[in-house]
Amino acid sequence: MKLKCLITLRVEFTLIMFRPFVGEIIVAKLKESTANGLRLSLEFFDDIYVPVHLLPVPSHSVPDPGKRDRVMWIWKFPDSDEELVIDGIDQIKFQVHSVNFPPIPIEQPEDSKPFAPMVVTGSIDFDGLGPVSWWVDAEDKDEEPEDP
């Protein structure tokens, strides 16, 4: 004879939802830099991608001497010989370009990566976006010294 036991528990919890909107500006850390673009992280969410066509124009990549299969992206500042590097040291300000919700898989292999509920595509091809130090340094250069 089988006995079924049903238990009802009252549970209280707090839910925090991350759902960025298109056009929102967010600051993240660089997780990886490849020939396809950048992958950014908010520590609690790592599926943020900045593809090559949404990097500042003109940008080019050079092999990263310290990391195999990785590159460093360099933006050549317009009307100048100055080149600005996108590296993992700085926080990166990006604008949400799109938010995609992939289909939920019915079954996943045990050793697979956890399912990402959404993929965020970002852009840094606009004034004020990209590594935060680019713009802080630019503000410092624009300030004129005060007269004594």
UniProtKB/TrEMBL annotation:
DNA-dependent RNA polymerase which catalyzes the transcription of DNA into RNA using the four ribonucleoside triphosphates as substrates. It is found in: Nucleus. This is DNA-directed RNA polymerase subunit. The keyword Lyase does not apply. It holds the Pfam family RNA_pol_Rbc25. Coiled coil: none annotated. Keywords: DNA-directed RNA polymerase, Nucleus, Transcription.
